[in-house]
Amino acid sequence: MPDQMLSICVFCGSRAGNRPEYGTDADDLGRALAAAGMRLVYGAGDVGLMGRVARAAQQAGGNTFGVIPVHLFKKEVGKRDLSTFVVTENMHERKKVMYMNSDAIVMLPGGAGSLDEFFEVLTWRQLGLHNKPILLMNTQGYWDPLLALMDHYINEGFAEADMRGFVQEFATVPELMTALKAT
Question: How far apart are CA 157 and CA 4, in angstroms?
């Protein structure tokens, strides 16, 4: 493992979703990041999967770095007891601060906001602006439609085939952690 602590940006839902497995994976990921000595970088909310991954990391003694825009502070219940807590003026700045303070990106299940974050870092990777790993936690096949969409737009000529290789998919947290440790 490198001398410097790896920082892992986690994009995920501000809601819990309908399956208990989503929350279980969020808890497991938070604990695993802490156990591996990796810092969690996330959206600073204390709700949904965001709150679960952060609370699990904290309870396991992990380092947490949260970034929240001022307009979401109340809605996402800004979690002030993090190791580092940053309030930004807008969503774009939030994504930038999260990205700039991370070595890899992990995406747990989530909605439109998570997809916005995912496609931004994927596009930046496509454009050669970074080479950070992008890892999908495909809990119960949640991201199968997203992966099929990526295959579709590649097959239809709207992206090069190598774009699919920018995204790694994992069915379990231990598999995902093995990939992160190799980063």
Answer: 40
How far is Cα 47 from Cα 53, in angstroms, rounded to an integer?
10
Whole-model pTM: value is 0.93
Contact between 32 and 180 (Cβ < 8 Å):
no
Name the amino acid, one letter, at 183: T
Q: What are phi and psi of 18, to 5 degrees?
A: -95, -10
Q: 42: closest CA among 9, 69, 80, 75?
A: 9
Q: b/e string for 80-100 if b means 16 or more Cβ within 10 A?
A: eebeeebbbeebeebbebbbe
Tokens (6 digits) for 106: 């992990």
Average pLDDT over residues 131-148: 98
Q: Do the strands 39-42 and 64-69 form a parallel or antiparallel pair, or are they unpaired?
A: parallel
Give the span between the Cα atoms of 138 and 129, in whole angstroms.
Answer: 25
